[in-house]
Amino acid sequence: MSTQSPSAPPVLVLFRDDFRLTDNPALHMACTTGQPVVCVYVQDPATRREGAIGWWLDQSRRALAEALTAQGGELLTVEGNTPDIIPELVTLFKADTVLWNRRYDPVGKEQDTALKTTLGLRQITTHSLSGRLLHEPWAVQTGSGQPYKVFTAWWRAARELGAPGRCVPAPSSLTFAAWPAAVKALATKAAAIPAPTLPEGAADAAMDWPCTEADAQDFLKDFVDDNVARYSTERDRPDKDTTSRLSPYLRAGLISARQVWHSVEAAIEKNGAISENAWTFLSELGWRDFAYMQLFYQPTLPTENLRSEFNDMPWHDDAALLKAWQHGQTGYPLVDAGMRQLYQTGWMHNRVRMVVASFLTKHLLTDWRKGEAWFHQRLVDADPAQNAMNWQWCAGTGIDASPWFRIFNPIGQSEKFDPSGAYIRTWVPELRHLPDKLIHTPWKADAALCRQIGLHLGTTYPHPIVELKAARTIALESYKNLPARQKDE
Ligand SMILES: Cc1cc2nc3c(=O)[nH]c(=O)nc-3n(C[C@H](O)[C@H](O)[C@H](O)COP(=O)(O)OP(=O)(O)OC[C@H]3O[C@@H](n4cnc5c(N)ncnc54)[C@H](O)[C@@H]3O)c2cc1C
After folding, report:
1. How far is CA 131 from the centre of its chain?
2. Residue 113 and residue 314: Cα distance in Å, rounded?
3. Which CATH architecture has domain 308-488?
4. What pLDDT is recorded for position 4?
5. Which residue among 74, 110, 136, 284 is the active-site one?
6. Which cofactors, by name (predicted)?
7. Residues flanking ligand 1, CB < 6 Å
8. Which fold has domain 133-166+210-297?
9. Which residue stretches of the chain have pLDDT < 50?
10. CA 260, 235, 394, 360 torsion: positive or negative?
11. Beta-strand relationship, 125-129 and 37-43
């Protein structure tokens, strides 16, 4: 039963990439005030996303709006610059409190700091809460108070902190503040803004990614029931597809990292035998926090090499090679399968993300920022921290990154992680009739077999766009000859 009084001044709750009712600390705190609530989403040009992620966040916003409607209220969507429009809403509603869950990206941090200052000057109460990560970026530090630069040390220290805070429940009932006429006008104006649409060719994303809080819970339950027990052994197998597929849900905040953590921890308590696999999985949530910690302290993570010697890297700028990579036409089946999965569904298996990133940056010697930008446009889980950190990791330009000389061989990776070619056959159908031993190297198929299965190399499927050994040698030489690196030695 609600104890909220509709006559008290309302509390504004801001939703930004946390489109959920359960374990939403800002919403939970609003309900404990006993005041009516206004749930607000700002269509802010400074933070608007395009591409698959723009579509996904918009779907998530709509799902939240429906969930609030089911509670007898509405999600108020307005357009504007967050630090300007929120004080305007405070005035229109005569609200006395504004609550939100924290953001860690540079624009988000800057906007929320400005908002806090503006509202503080008007004696409006504000609270920013922790709803996105397991641990705040500043909570895990070295003995001398510095951010960690190595994941294993960070993870050890994070584990010493113990489990993240408990999850807070969804409100059992909400009292919503009535909207004044001027607010209704703002909502009508925002409703006229065209919604972001899926990028060309990505229609499968709408089928693959059902979009509600309950769907996120279903993905979690399926994973904990069926797959967490074999996570360590199978997580690198794109053909098995047994990872959690929670990344889009975590990205939009349809589920919180804490909810995932506690659910897996409860499974470990029930069945200790899964512990090792489950902890490997939890460490991946650790990588997510580690990425946010990097973005928090290094706001240029998505745009600048964290290791400055790479500023002199003679990246190639070949538009045709980049396009072949983007569209899965490199002639290397695992790379092409991954890039086509991304194009059609907005998602790609982690192992394959690593292979295609290594191929782009090392075999094609292309600046990692071009790969990061393409991923950002096509991924439904595109995230400024995780995408940038992982690209810098794969390119060797980041902290605790894979060394430059570690160059994945796309054929070896394919043979090891997709041994029967099931993943390749799904995404590169023109190769599906090749026998297992040739699926990784179609150019070795003889003319008679190609004729028999209708494979015309150079026409229906490309010849390899680079020769691996030569490309590898160029990549290694380019790094060896970096002037900044030579100075260091
Ligand atoms: C080049 C590259 C770019 C990437 N870009 C993104 C991105 O934009 N958004 C994104 O969410 N992930 C990104 N990742 C990380 C990883 O590939 C995805 O999180 C993972 O594939 C999602 O599938 P899952 O949910 O089944 O993962 P699971 O294996 O089930 O892992 C559970 C969760 O842990 C987190 N996680 C897993 N691996 C990583 C990792 N390497 N770094 C950080 N967090 C991780 C994710 O939130 C994931 O949902 C990228 C990886 C690479 C190599």
Report:
1. 16
2. 39
3. Orthogonal Bundle (1.10)
4. 52
5. 284
6. (6R)-5,10-methylene-5,6,7,8-tetrahydrofolate; FAD
7. 235, 243-247, 250-251, 284-285, 287-288, 291, 350, 353-354, 357, 375, 379, 381-383, 386-387, 390-391, 394
8. 1.25.40
9. 1-3, 489
10. negative
11. unpaired
